[in-house]
Amino acid sequence: MTGFAANHVSGSTDVASEFLGELERSIATDVSTTPPQFRASLLRRLRAAQAAQPSMALIHQLAARALDVADTALRPGPRSRNRHGR
């Protein structure tokens, strides 16, 4: 992650959009072979993102949400239904 990390002049929406784009690309090219390895890799990337933009609350919120999604996927047990009951 580099583009958004060096961007300290744009607004939070632009920086967040860059962050999400970079996160999506890094996830798409991740070579982890197990879910725990993927989570550890993701956590490293998210912590680096937070360190790069320490005062950008939106980056911290998005990083927390990304980790929450990954943790939900790793949690054993039945998956909850979506809001449409499917």
Main sheet specs: none
End-to-end C-alpha gap = 35 Å
Helix/sheet category: mainly alpha
Q: Write the H/E string, N to C.
A: HHHH
Keywords:
about 90 residues; mainly alpha; elongated
Describe the structure concisely.
The protein has helices at 3-6, 12-28, 35-52, 57-74. The protein is an all-alpha fold.
3D architecture notes:
66% of the residues lie in helices and 0% in strands. Helix 3 (35-52) packs antiparallel against helix 4 (57-74). It is elongated, with a radius of gyration of 14 Å. With 86 residues, the protein is an all-alpha fold. It has four helices and no strands. The protein has one domain (3-74).
Write the layout of secondary structure elements.
Layout: H1 3-6, H2 12-28, H3 35-52, H4 57-74
